[in-house]
Amino acid sequence: MIEGLPKRIHCLGAAGAGMLPLTLYLANAGHDVSAEDSDFGEEALKLLECGGVRIGSYSEAGEAGLVYSSAIAEDHPARVLARAQGSVCLRRGECLALISRGRKLIAIAGSHGKTTTCGMLIDVLDTLGFGCDYLLGAQFSSGDPYRSDGNEWLVAEIDESDGTIDLFEPEITVIVNVDHDHHARYATEEAYFAAFEGLVARTRGQVILNADVAERLRSFASVPLLSLGEGGEVGLKAERAGSSWTSLSLTGAVTLDGALINRSGQMNACDAGFAFLASGSAGARIESGQAFEFRSIKRRQRCWYNSPNIQVFEDYAHHPEEIDSVFESFGTRKGWSTVVVFQAHRYSRTRELKRAFARSLANCEELVLLDVYAASESPLEGGMAEDLLSACRERTEKVVYVPESSDPIGMLAERARRGPTRILFLGAGNGDRHAKALRDRLVKSEPRWGSVYESLAEVSSFETVIREEEPMASKTTLRVGGVAERYFEPESLSQLLAVLKACYAADIPARPLGRGSNLLVPDEGVSGLVIRLGHPYWSRFELLGEGRARLGAGMRIKALCGQAAKEGLVGFEFLEGIPGSLGGVLRMNAGAMGGWVFDVVESIRYVTLKGEVLEATKGDLEFGYRYCRELESAIAIDAVLVSNKGIGSQEEIRRTIDTYQNKRKESQPREPSAGCIFKNPEGDSAGRLIDELGLKGAVVGGAEISHTHGNFIINRGGARSSDVIELVKFVRKVARERKGVDLHPEVLLFGTSWEDTLR
């Protein structure tokens, strides 16, 4: 149990973003906890019940201490009864301060961005294997919002809104920003800054803060101070590393070269920078190039629905600075329109900031204002939705006010049907409930794909896109074929697992696509979801030592050989020139120059089409000429390759690669092809046989049997898949009639089978 707290505790407002993790933390720490809220919601109820928390009123809790949200009014019956009984009564922040007493607290503070930074820091420390307890002020999309293992380190976000910030004495303090807010408590900017000045003064180990406020707060620190940002002790450099990913570097007093994060936008980069600095201050070490896949946090840039034509997002942003940051990350998308739905939070904030809100919202394509979310406040003159509407109309005519009574969700659902539309809910009020209600309507309107779009949304960023009726010809080396019903390039393992599980549950075929070599797409296209590991996330190259390397399945073979040569790894040169990615090469056990890819495989990781992640060593796999049984209905995600010849000279490796390249150029056609069409008959060569039969140069439509190599069918221009299939049938017929040889296609017929096609 927590020292200073009674055994029995009743949590009031327990479904709130900050109260829910605290309630669960107390129960896990050994307290007898009951909970109460005016509107729990199904998800919160399930979490509390699973955490051993009883649901009921304070009057039913017996003699118990009361921990309550600061949003709960003083005249609430539970607060009145607790005072009358002389029970312990604590605000959430006061309870958290008791929990942190005697611990090494990493306190995340600031006007906005606390929850995102706190969540990132938790994930960084977990990735690095650095043990800590934590209390997030929200919920992760997956995983508990707290950890209570009794670790000496505690990560928590500290709220200044109710003044409880004054109770904390952190080991490490992170201040992400300071922008005057909570005007009902802090009438002036000076009073607001004083709360952070005190926190800095009470910090025992190190202060990490935004360079913008460093000079104003520096004199209050009696411990080392690091400022992040332009003009600070630590500089920050962020570069795009593929859709939704960023390469982040730190310079100056702390250096870090190119750590990868699955976030985009300057504010996300800055929040991650704070998380990196805090982890380093605690003693955790981040390696250059290390990747961090941050879990999404509910109500922070959350996607609720992601289809080819409609996307629904929601963010807790309820301050002008927060809104500006969200818009910077959100960006625009060509061919899509954007509707922003804003619900102001508290009448006092709206009254003081309505003109700043109007400036931030002025450039919205379409702006919808909802009723102000009151929280615990009574209406204030100048702070109503109509007042905000007037301020916005001074800057834009593209704004409407839709009161709750007018069914804003129905209006938005109808608006979304006009064309590709992104809908973004902003505000700390009911935005999540509105987004969920809209999501539910959209899912019902898509009986085949709606559940997939819902599942994908749970792991989507602002940049994640799924497409419909996607042309496939440009994605194959033969340049023929129809469209995919749906097409998706996952940006992470979590996205891949989400869509695979959703497709399996909905009985929708999931069809892995590599680089499109050794593949023939039918003219009529393919049903289901085509999945391609084309994002840079799947092309990582990690040295493991002793001639071993872990390689992502999306890595092109040409890039693989080039990187291996750069690192001096001998033995992969024979793969040079195979036109595909590692995943496809593993699936086919492809080879060249007398070698096969499984000659250099130590182990592979793969995902079944049900969404199960498995790992197998080479000895556990069934493979042979042009097949790997386990990958026939699975997707390789990475493999450990081993150089049996050790480390060598980069120059010598390059010479060997060049030799193999020249051989390929001399023996294979340069026109678009799918590689070898037929498997070699036992003891013979399909190319030699086709040449002997005099079939080189045979043409059907735009397809031709290559004059350079008889086992290649090339696209002379304008070929169709049906042309290639007719040539395959023709060659098989001639080979059987003249030589008594059955030639079997090596090229895969995507989405169907050769058995059905060749009948």
In a nutshell, what does this entry contain?
The chain is α/β, with parallel strands linked by helices and about 750 residues long.
What does this protein structure show overall?
With 759 residues, this protein is an alpha/beta fold. It has six domains: 8-92, Rossmann fold (3-Layer(aba) Sandwich), CATH 3.40.50.720; 102-292, Mur-like, catalytic domain (UDP-N-acetylmuramoyl-L-alanine:D-glutamate ligase, 3-Layer(aba) Sandwich), CATH 3.40.1190; 302-457, Protein-Tyrosine Phosphatase, Chain A, CATH 3.90.190.20; 469-505 and 512-531, Uridine Diphospho-n-acetylenolpyruvylglucosamine Reductase, domain 2, CATH 3.30.43; 536-664, Uridine Diphospho-n-acetylenolpyruvylglucosamine Reductase, domain 3, CATH 3.30.465.10; 670-757, Uridine Diphospho-n-acetylenolpyruvylglucosamine Reductase, domain 1 (Alpha-Beta Complex). The longest helix is centred in the last third of the chain and has 19 residues, at 721-739. Strands 8-7-9-6-10-11-12 form a seven-stranded mixed β-sheet, sandwiched between helices. It has a six-stranded mixed β-sheet with strand order 17-18-22-19-20-21, sandwiched between helices. It is elongated, with a radius of gyration of 30 Å. It contains 21 helices and 41 strands.
CATH topology label of the largest domain: UDP-N-acetylmuramoyl-L-alanine:D-glutamate ligase
SS element count, helices: 21
How does the overall form come out from the CA principal axes? elongated
Low-confidence stretches: none
Instruction: Give the CATH level 1 class of the largest domain.
Output: Alpha Beta
What is the average per-residue confidence, as pLDDT, rounded to a whole number? Answer: 91
Strand order of the largest sheet: 8-7-9-6-10-11-12
What is the makeup of the main sheet? 7 strands, mixed
The number of domains is: 6
Beta-strand portion reads 15-25%
